[in-house]
Design brief:
Blueprint lengths: L1 H12 L9 E3 L6 E4 L2 E5 L12 H14 L14 H14 L3 E5 L2 H12 L5 E5 L4 H10 L2 E5 L4 H10 L6 E6 L11 H11 L2 E5 L14 H4 L8 E5 L9 E5 L1 H10 L1 H4 L6 H16 L1 H20 L11 E7 L1 H13 L2 E2 L1 E3 L9 E6 L6 H17 L6
Parallel strand pairs: 3-12, 5-6, 5-7, 7-8, 8-9
Antiparallel strand pairs: 1-2, 2-3, 4-10, 9-10, 11-14, 13-14
The structure holds pyridoxal-5'-phosphate.
Pyridoxal-5'-phosphate (PLP) binds next to helix 4.
Subunit structure: Homodimer.
Cofactor: pyridoxal 5'-phosphate
Catalytic activity: 6-carboxyhexanoyl-[ACP] + L-alanine + H(+) = (8S)-8-amino-7-oxononanoate + holo-[ACP] + CO2
């Protein structure tokens, strides 16, 4: 086992070692987190709409906990398929305007299980190089050919579609909004290419569900292309503020997944209280439009403040705002300085992002206020000045 210590030393020397630290929420101050007894302004959570502390959601979970118990006790195909599932899946299909929906324990399991259920040896998956790790792992599990196209590069995708045109089944898969840059996939072009080459199209709305679309349906609805997306995936762990994930598609697709998606078959169903909490979160996501509006206003403000200070930030309107630094060690120093200034934001380093693009990934929430963000932006500017990254 000695090799592990050596490898760990190598990681630590390259400023690439990760470690677990405990954070606890602050119930009376939803935009904050407490780490090592210090209260930090939380710019690193995916609770975009600020729902993790929503009283109606918590109450729905509490009620169900008292009547249905703590755990579900079995896989959904055995005795774990409790009543809240059916209701939630009907509501999801209606919200997304698909024939059917299927809930999974989390996004990682949904992506890996669904891809492996749809393709296998002799097939090919066309996947954006910056797609989420759960998609990449699903492709490995499936044993299909992995045709990775350069980020959002449609001519490259077209060339690969042509090259693999004789494969049995073809699946194009993409994040709708990319998790580390907050930029959007070229969904309209993807739809055109999928049609031209007779491929299936799967879109992961983990960072766009709840945020885009009139009722928070996601980016596909916002662009009115959802009818061309064969497999729509979303999570409940980000904008919904709870936990879990879902797939929407045709009745046939869902029937197939119930038979073939191994993470659904061989893993215990979500606790019923979680499923009930998600149902309540779905009501809030659809109804409380002000959360989306506030989030976009905050995102625009924060982006313009950082840009005016001279930082390089990602483009777009997403609440994911990457501040690109480049060097791994510098990114760690920046994130340490942020913590000293009372701000929690993660340094994201390779292999999560490409070499030479280490960054601070800020993520905003409707739980934040304009004043808090202005204060944070001023402190971030000072750190940039101190590290010689921006000019006075
Ligand atoms: C977070 C994320 C997932 C995984 O979802 P979990 O529910 O956290 O397992 C999948 N895809 C993308 C793009 C994500 O950002």
């Amino acid at each position: 086992m000695n090799w592990i210590e050596k490898e760990l030393e190598f990681l630590a020397d390259a400023s690439l070692e990760r470690s677990l630290r405990t954070s606890s929420p602050v119930s009376e101050a939803p935009g904050y987190t407490v780490r090592e007894e210090r209260r930090l302004f939380n710019l690193s959570s995916n609770d975009y709409l600020g729902l993790s502390g929503h009283p109606a959601i918590i109450e729905a979970m509490r009620e169900k906990l008292l009547t249905e118990g703590a755990g579900s006790g079995a896989s959904r195909l055995v005795t774990g398929n409790r009543p809240p599932y059916h209701r939630l899946e009907e509501e999801l299909a209606y919200w997304q305007n698909y024939e059917a929906a299927l809930v999974f324990a989390n996004g990682y399991m949904a992506n890996s299980g669904v891809i492996a259920a749809l393709v296998g040896r002799g097939d090919v998956v066309f996947s954006d190089q910056w797609n989420h790790a759960s998609i990449v792992d699903g492709i490995s599990l499936s044993r299909a050919e992995h045709a990775r196209y350069r980020h959002k590069d449609m001519p490259h995708l077209r060339a690969l579609l042509h090259k693999y045109r004789d494969k049995r089944r073809k699946l194009i898969v993409t994040d709708a909004v990319f998790s580390m840059d907050g930029d959007q996939a070229p969904l309209r072009e993807l739809v055109a290419l999928k049609r031209e080459y007779g491929a299936m199209l799967m879109v992961d709305e983990a960072h766009s569900g709840g945020i885009y679309g009139k009722h928070g349906e996601g980016l596909c609805h916002e662009l009115a292309i959802q009818n061309d997306v064969d497999i729509h995936m979303g999570t409940f762990s980000k904008s919904f503020g709870v936990y879990g994930a879902y797939i929407c598609g045709s009745r046939t697709l869902i029937r197939w997944l119930v038979n073939k998606a191994r993470p659904l078959i061989y893993s215990t169903a979500l606790p019923p209280a979680v499923v009930a909490g998600v149902s309540e979160a779905l009501v809030v996501v659809q109804g409380e439009h002000w959360r989306r509006e506030k989030l976009f206003a905050l995102s625009m403000l924060f982006r313009s403040l950082l840009g005016a200070s001279g930082f390089t930030i990602g483009e777009g309107d997403s609440p994911i705002v990457p501040l690109i630094i480049g060097d791994n060690d510098m990114a760690l120093r920046f994130s340490g300085a942020l913590e000293d200034e009372g701000i929690a934001a993660a340094a994201i380093r390779p292999p999560t992002v490409p070499d030479g693009t280490a960054r601070i990934r800020f993520s905003l929430s409707a739980a934040h206020t304009e004043k808090e963000l202005r204060d944070a932006a001023a402190r971030i500017r000072n750190i940039g000045l101190g590290l010689g990254m921006v000019k006075p």
